[in-house]
Every structure is written in structure tokens, then in C-alpha cells.
Design brief:
mainly beta, Secre_tail, four-stranded antiparallel β-sheet, 3 helices, PorZ_N
Length: 762
């Protein structure tokens, strides 16, 4: 229990620190899906799927805000900036509100709507409207008051028939009345009425379904869900048809002297006389084919939110110039697979369901991140490859990258350019033959290079399920009929290779198969006490650690094969669970967890991703859970973990989730061949620094001793991997004093040594 409490305190401390600095975490978010815009006199605030950015129109400065800064990973549905209070209010589909104080960047999570005793599917926040310090929050159940001064909620208005819950799309104030557009009509009430919680105080003045309402000049306008703009006639207390749009309105707002109405394909801008002075159509933006979501204006600049192309700007007077003002990032947040090298990170967006079905085929491209920023390769340039799901970089040439598709085969890239799409027509790969009417379906999921530079891949739903593209360009196939019950019904997951050259492949129905071509030997690990002891035959990931153990992740838990060498010596391969003590009770580590990935870091720790429970970091043996990161205690935007990979040089751990990519700045780097690159950071250690000192560039099992200038020993450790940490204490007892400290590093055999210095300033 003490260990569990300690882990909680550590994670809580980390969580509190995330919003204050980005020392441990970094976000790599896409800002392309704009859900809402809000404008002040000098700044545009844009809400993307689950992150924000703002741009100062005077200075051009762009600021991004994401889960690392304290936002939730949930989907943002509305954003509003109050110039009076200098606060930005963010509304979510699940009812969460986050109030950002722009003066200091602090954030307040407001969960009152989430906690309301209402069905969760009607808590979406649709719109914010400020009046006399009160924000009226339009939700799918009604209207809620929020006081920007006290940051407290006020009354809730259920204004449907007999007080029913109805979806409010927008509210506005006009001539002493508050008007609410809803899916069951337009209602109004006197804003001075102290009893607006009584639905009887709300008068129905327009029937039908309405998507927006706003005051413009001295008049009141509303638009129904069919896209017909109406003007309020006070003489008859009703709304009269004014003009019809070609499509339903997605967004209507009055800003300065203009009324802007946005549809999927057009933006209509009216002046104060309600004359249409500019119409922007998607086909005018030739650089992309955008889908509009919202629009607003500051001065002469029109800001356009799009579904997949970020924020586009144009001027009111110009009809030809469009600029993209979106912070650069990956193409989208739902990243399915990643691959990190020492210099770059690759990401792809294809996917498949739990049954490996890819037929909801995507047409997204590829993204690459390095020191120069993001390079996005659109779908139009990937030679028609759909549903890209796995990346492998040639370890001997980082400019040669292969990407497996769960539908189109294997894409080869050279120098960041797609060059060849291998499929059944030009390679040894095979298409599915037993499913009628599905042609050119070539499924490649797992891939791995061997020491000779040959690329091994698995080819699902065919008899010859193991393929190799040899270093000389020749293809070779191996039948899996000797080991699989029905190879044409077998889908493969990830694969790996061990020190003996044995390939380990996960399958959805037959557990894990091992294959070594040197003697054409197959062996299988599946469920059942006598056939491998997996908890289920649906295995998803295999990883070999530095102790030559095979870690196997299934849809129902974790198993370990004690030694991969047993493939060559034993007739049967049997795995075991990891048994840990929790509250003095024996428990199975990750019992019945759907494991999506396992990655071994430089210290032989295991990073384990799950389908709905976040990320676990466990010790080399698995007996200690060092971290369990979730959306509740870390910047993870989602607990759905698609992929994990590690930069072996820096130790940065990249985590791809269903709602964004983040990284954790770990310290477990790969061991070096010598001590020539040993270094210490930070150096000097300044008074405001709260982290640890890292000594990197180490040999494995190097001995590190730290002494003060007089030779008194204050720290000693044997390295596992390429980096160790020092908490700047004398053996954990007390913080060492200011001064210069000597770091003595020696190889395990004592032949190679290195001396470094670090200055501590208290």
C-alpha cells in the first residue's frame, strides 16, 4: 500500500508540474481540425480537436496550448475569449469547461456540467454568450449561467415544453430579452427576470429547428437548420424569412460591422445594410480542398476554420489570396503508428478494427518530424497506398523507410519521397484470394530488418504468410501451412527478431509463431496449459528484452517466454504470467488488459501500451510498476494507446494515442560503445531547477562515482543503458551544497575511464 501511495504522490506531483513547465512532457498535436473561433480586437483564438492556438494580428505571434499545458484530451466543441476579463473559456463535448487566465496561463477545470445528473450524451457545450459578466452557456440540455468574476456557476434553465431538456445552439440579447435558438424552436425571456429557471417564463416565438441566432446592428437574425436566414419582426413578434442559403448553416456570428454565415462549402459576409459583400467558396482555395466549419473577422482579415486544413485567412477586399495560419504539426491527431530514429520521428494514420478489418479505408498521408519541424506528405503523393499501419526504418540507412499497408501492400520511401508501392503485381507479396469481389487487397502489418539487411514482413490472409525482401532486391516466400490451422484466415500483428535470427509473429487466432529459415523450423505459442499458456490466442505484440526474454502482449493480458533460445532447444515453448504483490495479495500483472504495444528501453524497462488504460512503465523484471500514465494523472490526451517508440539516443518516449501524440522525456537511453560522448546536463544546476542531473553517453554497466571537490563520495551507481540520474543529494539523505562536483566514470572492465564536472548553485 505504501508503494501505491508513493506512486500516486509522484504522479500527482508530475501532474501539477505539467501545466507549469514542459520539462518532462512535450506535445506534438495537429491543429488542422478547427471546431470554433473567437476573436478579440487584436487576437484570434482557434480551437482545434483537442488543442488551442492563438495568433496576435499585430505581432504575428502564435501560441499553442494542449494537454501538456493542462487542457483535456476530450473533444473541444466551443471557445470564447472575454476581452473584459482577459479569460478564454473552452467548452467540450462531454460538458467540461476550462477557463484560461491569459494573464498568467493558469487554468481552472470546471466540472459542474459533467457532474449534473443528466444523460452523458446531452452535455455538449455549443456556444458561449457574455452579458454583464455572465456567460450564458448553451448546451444540449439547456442553458447554464457562469460568472466570469467569481468563476462559479449560477442557474440552469431547462426551457423546453413542461421544462424538458432541449438542445440550445446559441443565445443572444436583444432589447432586454434573452433569445435561445434550439432544436424545438426559438424562445425568449426578459433578461431582468429573476425567475428564469421557471420554463413558463420563456415564450415560444418561432417553431421548427434552429441552428443559430445573433444580434446584428439593431436587428435580430436567426437561421434554421435548413439554411434559411430569418429576421425578427417586433411588430408581429415573429421571425420572417429573409434569404435562403444553398446549404445548412454551421455557424452564424456578428462581428464588428459584419454578419458572417458559414456553410460546408461557402462563407457569406454581409455588411450593416445586409448586403452580401463577399462570398467565399471552397473551390476558390486552390491549394487545398477545404471543408469549412466556422469564420470570423478582425479588421479587414477574415479567419476561416476548416475540417482538415486548419485556419485559413484572406482579406475582405481581396478575392484571390488565401494563407494558411495553422501551427505546423502532424496531419491529424489519431496517429496509428510511429517509428523513432536518432534524428526523426515517422507517423502514419491508417488503422483497422479489433478484427484487423481495414475496410473503412483512409486516404491520409505520412508525417515526419525532425529538428527542422514537420514534413507532411499528402495522400496524393503516396502512390495510392491506403490504410498505412506500420513503419520500419532501415537501420543501415535512415533515408530508406518502408511502410506497411493493411490494404495496399508495402510502400518504400527514399529521401522522404515515396518511390515504390510493392503489391501482388511487382513483388512476392500476395493479395487475399478467398474473399470474393475484393481485389488488390494486400495486407502487410509487421516488418523487421535482420542483421544482413533483409526486410522480413508478414502477409495476412494468405498461405505464404512470411515474406522477405532481400538486400539484393529479390523476394522469397515461406508457407505457414506447417504451423497454422488455416493460414488464409490468419491475420498477423506486430513482429520482432531475436539474436538468433528467429522471427516472432503475432496472430489473431494462433497466438505467436516463431520461424527460423536456417532450418525451416516453426514453433507456436498459443493458449492452453500444454500449448504455450497464453491467456488467449489473440496476440498483438512481441518484444525481446536485453535478457533475451520474449514479452508477449495479448488482448487478455501479458505473458513472458523466459528465453528465446528455447526455440532452438525445446520441443515445447511455455510462457508465464508475471505475479506481483499488491496489498499483500498475489496478482497477475496487467491481468486481462488489451495490450497494444511493448517497447524495451535502454535500461531494459518495459513501456506497455493498452487499448483503454493508458501506459505502464514496469521494471526489467516487471515486479515494479514505475509509472502508470493515464489522462487523469498526465498529459496523455487519451487512454487509447496505439503505439509507443523511443529515441534511443535521447531517451524520449513517444506515445501515439487516439487523440494526439505526446512524449515523455525519459532517461533510459541505449548504451554507447565507448565513453567519448559522455556528457552531463544541465550544467550548471541553477537554484530554480527542480529536476535531476543526467549523465549520458555511458557504456552499459559503467561505474559512476560522484564526489565533492574534497573527494567525499556523495553518489555511486552502476549504469543500465546509456544514462543515469543523480538527484543532487548525498545518497538520498540531504541536498548537497553549492560547489563543483567531480564525476568519475569507468567501464566495467576498468579499461576505459572518463572524468566530468558539474557545478551546483543553490
Amino acid at each position: 500500500m505504501k508503494n501505491r501511495l508513493l506512486h500516486f504522490v509522484v504522479l500527482l506531483t508530475l501532474q501539477l508540474g505539467f501545466a507549469q513547465n514542459n520539462f518532462l512532457w512535450q506535445g506534438y498535436f495537429s491543429y488542422n481540425e478547427i471546431t470554433d473561433l473567437s476573436a478579440s480586437s487584436t487576437t484570434i483564438y482557434a480551437a482545434s480537436e483537442n488543442a488551442l492556438f492563438s495568433k496576435n494580428t499585430a505581432t504575428g505571434q502564435i501560441k499553442t496550448t494542449n494537454t501538456v499545458d493542462g487542457l483535456s484530451g476530450e473533444t473541444i466543441s466551443s471557445v470564447y475569449h472575454s476581452e473584459i476579463f482577459n479569460k478564454t473559456v473552452v467548452g467540450y463535448e462531454n460538458g467540461l469547461m476550462i477557463v484560461i487566465n491569459e494573464a498568467d496561463g493558469s487554468m481552472l477545470n470546471v466540472v459542474d456540467i459533467i457532474n449534473k445528473q443528466l444523460p452523458p450524451n446531452i452535455k455538449k457545450i455549443n456556444h458561449f454568450m457574455e452579458f454583464e459578466g455572465i456567460v450564458y452557456v448553451s448546451c444540449d440540455f439547456g442553458i447554464v449561467q457562469f460568472n466570469l468574476a467569481t468563476l462559479q456557476f449560477g442557474d440552469t434553465y431547462f426551457i423546453g415544453t413542461n421544462g424538458a431538456e432541449i438542445s440550445i445552439s446559441q443565445t443572444t440579447i436583444h432589447n432586454g430579452f434573452i433569445y435561445a435558438a434550439s432544436n424545438t424552436g426559438i424562445r425568449r425571456a426578459a433578461i431582468s427576470n429573476k425567475n428564469l429557471v421557471d420554463y413558463k417564463q420563456w415564450e415560444l416565438i418561432g417553431t421548427g429547428s434552429w441552428s443559430g441566432i445573433t444580434i446584428f446592428g439593431m436587428d435580430l437574425f436567426a437561421v434554421n437548420t435548413a439554411g434559411y436566414i430569418h429576421k425578427y419582426d417586433s411588430n408581429f413578434n415573429t421571425f420572417l424569412g429573409y434569404t435562403a442559403l444553398a446549404q445548412p448553416s454551421l455557424d452564424m456570428r456578428a462581428k464588428a460591422n459584419y454578419l458572417l454565415v458559414t456553410t460546408v462549402n461557402s462563407i457569406y459576409i454581409y455588411n450593416s445594410q445586409m448586403m452580401l459583400i463577399r462570398q467565399i467558396n471552397t473551390n476558390q482555395i486552390t491549394e487545398s480542398n477545404p471543408t469549412f466549419t466556422c469564420s470570423t473577422i478582425i479588421g479587414d482579415t477574415i479567419f476561416i476554420g476548416t475540417k482538415e486544413d486548419g485556419m485559413i485567412t484572406t482579406s475582405l477586399s481581396s478575392t484571390a489570396i488565401f494563407e494558411n495560419n495553422t501551427p505546423i504539426g502532424p496531419l491529424r491527431n489519431n496517429i496509428f503508428a510511429i517509428q523513432a530514429t536518432s534524428n526523426s520521428l515517422w507517423t502514419v494514420y491508417g488503422d483497422y478494427n479489433v478484427d484487423y478489418n481495414p475496410y473503412d479505408l483512409d486516404d491520409f498521408g505520412i508525417s515526419k518530424y525532425n529538428a527542422s519541424g514537420w514534413l507532411n506528405i499528402p495522400y496524393e503523393k503516396v502512390l495510392g497506398a491506403k490504410s498505412l499501419v506500420r513503419i520500419i526504418v532501415n537501420p543501415n540507412d535512415e533515408n530508406e523507410v518502408y511502410i506497411g499497408s493493411s490494404y495496399s501492400g508495402l510502400l518504400k520511401m527514399e529521401n522522404d519521397t515515396p518511390s515504390v508501392l510493392y503489391n501482388q503485381k511487382n513483388s512476392g507479396l500476395e493479395q487475399i484470394s478467398f474473399i470474393p469481389n475484393y481485389f488488390n487487397d494486400v495486407r502487410i502489418n509487421g516488418a523487421v530488418f535482420d542483421k544482413s539487411g533483409n526486410l522480413w514482413v508478414n502477409n495476412s490472409l494468405v498461405n505464404n504468410g512470411i515474406k522477405v525482401l532481400k538486400a539484393d532486391g529479390a523476394w522469397q516466400s515461406f508457407s505457414t501451412k506447417p504451423i497454422l490451422i488455416d493460414p488464409e484466415k490468419c491475420s498477423y500483428g506486430r513482429m520482432t527478431i531475436d539474436k538468433n535470427g528467429t522471427k516472432w509473429l503475432t496472430t489473431n487466432k494462433d497466438g505467436v509463431i516463431g520461424f527460423n529459415e536456417n532450418n525451416n523450423r516453426f514453433k507456436k505459442i498459443t493458449s492452453g496449459a500444454d500449448t504455450g499458456n497464453l491467456p488467449i490466442a489473440d496476440a498483438r505484440v512481441v518484444a525481446v528484452d536485453t535478457r533475451n526474454q520474449l514479452w508477449i502482449g495479448t488482448t487478455k493480458g501479458l505473458r513472458i517466454l523466459p528465453n528465446v533460445g528455447s526455440f532452438l532447444t525445446d520441443d515445447k515453448l511455455t510462457t508465464s504470467p508475471i505475479i506481483i504483490l499488491e496489498d499483500n495479495l498475489a496478482q497477475e500483472l496487467l491481468y486481462e488488459q488489451f495490450i497494444t504495444d511493448i517497447v524495451v528501453d535502454g535500461s531494459n524497462n518495459k513501456w506497455i501500451g493498452t487499448a483503454d488504460s493508458g501506459v505502464f512503465l514496469v521494471s526489467p523484471s516487471g515486479q515494479e510498476t514505475k509509472y502508470h500514465f493515464t489522462t487523469n494523472n498526465s498529459p496523455l490526451p487519451s487512454n487509447v494507446i496505439n503505439d509507443i517508440d523511443i529515441n534511443s539516443v535521447t531517451g524520449e518516449v513517444f506515445i501515439a494515442t487516439a487523440k494526439g501524440l505526446v512524449s515523455f522525456k525519459g532517461v533510459s537511453t541505449a548504451a554507447n560503445d565507448d565513453l567519448s560522448n559522455a556528457f552531463v546536463y544541465p550544467n550548471p544546476v541553477r537554484p530554480d531547477y527542480q529536476g535531476t542531473v543526467k549523465i549520458s553517453g555511458l557504456l552499459d554497466k559503467a561505474n559512476i562515482k560522484i564526489t565533492d571537490i574534497e573527494g567525499n563520495l556523495v553518489f555511486e551507481k552502476i549504469s543500465e543503458g546509456g544514462t543515469i540520474e543523480w538527484d543532487t543529494t548525498a545518497f538520498g539523505k540531504y541536498k548537497v551544497a553549492s560547489g563543483v562536483y567531480m564525476i568519475f566514470i569507468s567501464a566495467q572492465d576498468g579499461v576505459e575511464t572518463k572524468v566530468k564536472k558539474v557545478m551546483i548553485i543553490r
